[in-house]
Amino acid sequence: MGTRLIIDTDPGVDDAFAIGLAALSDDVELLGVTTVFGNVPLETTTLNARRLLELCGRPDVPVAAGADRPLVHAQLDRAAHVHGADGLSGRSHTLPEPTRPLESSDAVSLLVSLIEAADGPVTLAPIGPLTNIALLLAAHPGVKAKIARIVIMGGGLHHGNSTPAAEFNIWSDPEAARRVLVEEDVPCVLVPLDLTHRCAFDSAWLGKLAASGPLGATLKSLTAEYLAHYRTELGFDGIVLHDAVAVAEAIKPGILVTETYPIEVDCGFGAARGATVADRRLKPGGGRTVDVALDTDLDGLRAFLLTRLAGTR
Known about the structure:
Helix content: 25-40%
Protein name: Pyrimidine-specific ribonucleoside hydrolase
Structural class: alpha/beta
Order of helices and strands: EHEHEHHEHEHHEHEHHHEHEEEEH
InterPro entries: Inosine/uridine_hydrolase_dom, IUNH, Ribo_hydro-like
Strand order of the largest sheet: 3-2-1-4-5-6-12-9
GO molecular function, one term: purine nucleosidase activity
Number of helices: 13
Keywords: Glycosidase, Hydrolase
GO biological process, one term: purine nucleoside catabolic process
Shape: globular
């Protein structure tokens, strides 16, 4: 039996690769996908998720729509300038139309039903704002006993990307992030920008993916606007697949090297709003800790993603 996995997502180009990674891995039991506002509005993220599962030949996977806004304060900005207005570099319409209807239940209800019905512990991989996960844990604490761990793409210990201090997913709903990372007691792995930026995938890697077959070529075709954005940030032709790095850890525990720290999330209204602060003192105080992914075998990780997405495993 492989990893029982539910992805909570806001596709998003890097989300597309993350969904593909899970959907195409034969050692993953992909129980469901839930959607959240984030890179683009909820209606768009939800359609993108359904189309991506259809592309991967996985209409068996249920999809439910979740929160369309943060818990408390309005989302200040989206990420269309990075991912394109449709979230997928203007190419969402080229994906196959979904054949499975959207679930009539909301995301939290689907999460509860899938977790309770699972025949063992379930891993959650939230790769967008943490609103749905915060709502789940607050309203249904009984499911926590069946959550193996929550592998989160978010945060940055030394820098942000939406602001100098804050990474996009955490910044989009800091109150939800604080609930999950600070106030709860479910085991969490945080995969921050500090590592995901180091795991950049260059044009040669993308070329190998495109040459692997129609599915790989389609995934590569979704990267045009994303590639243009990261060409400026990275200084070379490449992209950063933040969310796929986190899902790799969800699938293969230990592929990322972690260190354990207490985490705080800044929910104030100054320049640090949405910042994730790790207490890295030698003898921090007691309380809840989070495993923070800070290293990996970079070439090994890139090979892992390529073999899974190319279907050569």
